[in-house]
């Protein structure tokens, strides 16, 4: 995930949310996973929330992000469904890239958080 986007300077939560979407659809690189895990750990340092199953959220950056932003646990499946539907409707002339999809999902659904 390229973090050289100027939007991330003024709205750093965009980095986390767009990375979250990319992770949900299997398009986040291993390096991106590691980096976003570190960012979430720093952003929510001291967070003592637990997962819905009662387990610890340490090491699961997506679960920590969902918990801290109070996002529904079914969000991952919803994002994957929308991605599959988007890909089924796209044309060769206007393909939707994973990054464009992530940006669109965040802009349409999480603007109030960023």
In short, what is this structure?
The chain has helices at 7-10, 13-24, 30-43, 61-69, 75-89, 98-109. It is mainly alpha-helical.
Shape call? globular
Could you state the oligomeric state of the chains shown? single chain
Low-confidence region ranges: none
What's the helical proportion of residues? 55-70%
Give the N-to-C terminal Cα separation: 18 Å
Strand portion = under 5%
Please state the CA-atom Rg, rounded to the nearest Å: 14 Å
* Number of continuous helical runs: 6
For the residues shown, what is the average pLDDT? 84
Q: What is the helix/strand order?
A: HHHHHH
* Overall number of structural domains: 1
Largest pleated sheet: none
Q: How many DSSP-defined strands?
A: 0
Descriptive overview:
The protein is mainly alpha-helical and 114 residues long. The chain has one domain (7-109). The protein is 58% helix and 0% strand. It contains 6 helices and no strands. Helix 2 packs across helix 6 (98-109) and helix 3 crosses helix 4. It is globular.
Task: Give the secondary structure arrangement, pairings included.
Layout: H1 7-10, H2 13-24, H3 30-43, H4 61-69, H5 75-89, H6 98-109
Helix pairs in contact: 2-3, 2-6, 3-4
Which tags fit this structure?
mainly alpha, 58% helix, 114 residues
């Amino acid at each position: 995930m390229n973090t050289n986007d100027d939007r991330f300077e003024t709205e750093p939560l965009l980095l986390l949310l767009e990375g979250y979407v990319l992770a949900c659809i299997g398009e986040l690189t291993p390096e991106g996973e590691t980096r976003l895990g570190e960012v979430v750990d720093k952003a929510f340092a001291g967070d003592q929330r637990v997962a819905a199953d009662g387990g610890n959220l340490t090491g699961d950056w997506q679960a920590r992000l969902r918990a801290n932003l109070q996002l529904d646990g079914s969000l991952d499946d919803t994002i994957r469904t929308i991605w599959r539907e988007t890909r089924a409707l796209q044309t060769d002339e206007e393909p939707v890239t994973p990054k464009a999809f992530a940006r669109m999902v965040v802009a349409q659904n999480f603007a109030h958080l960023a």
